Predict the structure.
Amino acid sequence: MEHYFTNNNDLKSELKTISYQVESYEFLFLSDNGVFSKNKIDTGSKLLIETFLKQETRTHLEILDVGCGYGFLGVVSSVILDSQVDMCDVNKRALHLANLNLEKNKAKGSTILSNCYENIKKKYDIILTNPPIRAGKNIVLNILENAKKYLKEEGSLWFVIRKDQGAKSIAKILEKSAICTIVEKSKGFYIFQAKFS
């Protein structure tokens, strides 16, 4: 099986369009083989963005979407919060799609080829991530624990993890360095907000 966190240049391209509506906004996303949740918007990502948008009323933020895939979290948050978004991923095809989706939805942002935070150079108000569980616990913890270094003083990390994929044990580890709050629970998904001291 091809993983969405690897690059395979031989993988045949089959572009598809996915629509998504939230509040009065309508989005169209291009997706393809070799990227996470290629046929529909992932349930966890959807719950994460909708929970986050209910809580976050500020605009003109600087947002980082880590492991962005084709750019769902970054694009939606950029448009609705009128904010600048950077989106990073290790998958080149995902980043190509994310660039197309920024343009398609008139979002403000850019993409960065980066394994976790490897090529991230600045600090953000918000970091959003649906971490790649299948890449292994070390990668997930790298993304969550190291968010602290890339957040502004009052910044926060928002993430989603399924209960059966270790949501509570991962949150417990994160609680050593952050105040970690379960903001929403639905269909086995937990939405967390973490603030680092």
About this structure: The chain has five helices and nine strands. The mean pLDDT is 92. The beta strands are 16-22, 25-31, 62-66, 84-89, 108-113, 124-129, 151-162, 178-186, 189-196. Residues 16-196 form a domain with the Rossmann fold fold (CATH 3.40.50.150).
